[in-house]
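Sequence, please.
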């Protein structure tokens, strides 16, 4: 049963349940030092036990409030492009954005944002949260709603639903574009070296790849479809696995530019010439695609605009406005360079 205003849990109730003073509870709520991690965890647990909210109800943040952007990692070109868009959007909107990553905020909890971390954000007065390429649990989403913290995600790992506002690219269309390009060159044995199987963007790109093959009447070979992570090392592993097949592919569609870097490295290690003996297509069109040898044919996704639109969406939600769309997808396009050619 929902609490009425007169029965709302108090600071004193939290203190009693946690076995600490009200001053200690106040320190935890406001993110001040002088409290051990064990005590902080006990206070947060007590808040959940008595159903305490740090405010008298969901806040109505000022349009110029401070917002948080949480990245899975900042040590890759993808994140830098998205962050550039977030910062440009913040400047245009006249707001402040605090940027962090799991490496700095939750090194022991990379797979989950954490309810306690979200509660800390609210206590520090954040108006909204933008989460990039990370998974959110139902409890974490509900906590944001309960605390009045606006929330949007970029390229979520979660399946898309109406409880989560998301911004991404037309990954399915990009998968079609990449595969149709290789088919138009004459390739019929096309491998897919994708990202994590649970990633929504990775699955959408795979579905686009399969759609293009089916439309062209090319039989889909499950042995040519691999999942791993969006890192060069994963691209190397998947390429060696694909090229060890009895009937190896003549082209590989990589799920990201970083994966494509690993594909190119593995090809060089085997003495294969790209594109004469193996064609390679990436996905992202980050600056690394221009400086590979040869320059990488890739699917351009508007990462800068994705960051800018995502931040604007979080601000709209914080103002109580409806977003332009629950799930925004910005258009992709194929950029042809020198890593693709007709098969031998």
């Amino acid at each position: 049963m929902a609490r009425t205003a007169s029965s709302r849990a108090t600071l004193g109730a939290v203190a009693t349940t946690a076995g600490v003073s009200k001053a200690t509870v106040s320190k935890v709520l406001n993110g001040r030092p002088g409290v051990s991690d064990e005590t902080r965890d006990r206070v947060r647990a007590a808040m959940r036990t008595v159903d305490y909210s740090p405010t008298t109800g969901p806040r109505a943040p000022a349009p110029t409030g401070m917002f948080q952007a949480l990245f899975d990692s900042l040590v890759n070109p993808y994140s830098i492009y998205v962050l550039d868009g977030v910062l440009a959007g913040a400047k245009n909107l006249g707001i402040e954005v605090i940027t962090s990553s799991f490496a700095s905020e939750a090194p022991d909890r990379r797979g989950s944002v954490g309810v306690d971390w979200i509660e800390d954000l609210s206590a520090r007065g954040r108006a909204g949260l933008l989460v990039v390429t990370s998974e959110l649990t139902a409890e974490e989403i509900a906590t944001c709603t309960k605390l009045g913290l606006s929330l949007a995600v970029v390229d979520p790992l979660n399946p898309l639903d109406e409880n989560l506002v998301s911004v991404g690219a037309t990954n399915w269309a990009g998968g079609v574009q990449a595969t149709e390009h290789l088919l138009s060159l004459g390739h019929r044995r096309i491998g897919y070296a994708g990202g994590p199987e649970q990633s929504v963007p990775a699955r959408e790109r795979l579905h686009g790849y399969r759609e293009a093959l089916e439309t062209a009447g090319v039989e889909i070979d499950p042995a040519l479809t691999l999942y791993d992570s969006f890192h060069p090392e994963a691209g190397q592993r998947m390429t060696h696995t694909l090229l060890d097949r009895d009937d190896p592919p003549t082209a590989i569609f990589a799920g990201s530019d970083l994966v494509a870097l690993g594909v190119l490295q593995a090809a060089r290690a085997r003495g294969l010439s790209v594109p004469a003996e193996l064609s390679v297509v990436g996905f992202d069109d980050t600056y690394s695609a221009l400086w590979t040898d040869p320059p990488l044919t890739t699917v351009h996704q508007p990462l800068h605009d994705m960051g800018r639109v995502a931040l604007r969406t979080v601000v709209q939600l914080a103002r109580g406005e409806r977003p332009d769309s629950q799930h925004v997808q910005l258009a992709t396009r194929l950029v042809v360079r020198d890593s693709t050619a007709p098969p031998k």
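The first helix runs from residue 11 to 18.
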